[in-house]
Design a protein that fits this description.
Elements: H1 2-12, H2 14-28, E1 33-39, E2 45-51, H3 77-82, H4 90-96, E3 100-102, E4 107-108, H5 113-122, E5 130-132, H6 134-137, H7 145-158, H8 161-177
Parallel strand pairs: 3-5
Antiparallel strand pairs: 1-2, 1-4
Helix pairs in contact: 1-4, 5-7
């Protein structure tokens, strides 16, 4: 079912995809997509797709670990991030079967060993990651690694259609009011 919805959404927002790709291209050239190695279901590595919001040759470290991330962000990159428009290519990840719409965010294949270990201890690695999740609508960027894992564990233990619906609804609210976004 997720794949059918992903196909529908990709076609529905194809003009927006093209516009964002054009904006990224005129801001900093090709490529317009950023591909990052992530860990999915059972720690299986996959390529996560995003619209590129950082300049080419930006150091491969999480944005929150940069001294001054603003000097790396391309024109309109901050706008794309604030409204989570850079995340739209992840519909392709849903279509490929790497992700769901709702679930714990996938952790990076590098430099998040503490998160990987905490997730493994709580069994969170046994569910498919999502574009949005319980941790994203309950603190987003302000959550510590430990808190994210606790929220992901809550999702794991309480996973249901209604909880997914609530998360999707809250995601639109969090994005529109730009709550808990650090970068």
């Amino acid at each position: 079912m997720s794949r059918i919805v992903a196909i529908f959404l990709i076609f529905l927002i194809l003009p927006l995809y093209c516009l964002i790709a054009f904006i990224v291209y005129i801001s900093d050239g090709l490529p317009v997509f950023y591909v990052q190695k992530k860990l999915g279901l059972n720690h299986k590595e996959f390529n996560l797709y995003k619209f590129r919001t950082m300049k080419k040759n930006t150091p491969e470290v999480p944005t929150e670990e940069m001294n001054d991330s603003s000097k790396y962000i391309i024109k309109f990159g901050l706008f794309l991030r604030k409204f989570s428009l850079d995340e739209l290519p992840q519909f392709w990840n849903v279509l490929k079967g790497d992700m769901n719409f709702v679930g714990p965010r996938p952790c990076m294949a590098t430099n998040e060993e503490i998160v990987k270990t905490l997730r493994e201890e709580n069994g969170i690695h046994k569910i498919k990651p999502g574009i949005t999740g319980w941790a994203q609508v309950n603190g987003r960027d302000l959550n510590s690694f430990k808190n994210k894992v606790e929220l992901d564990n809550y999702y794991l233990l309480n996973k249901s259609f209604w909880l997914d619906f609530k998360i999707i609804f809250k995601t639109f609210f969090v994005v529109l009011v730009q709550r808990n976004i650090k970068h």
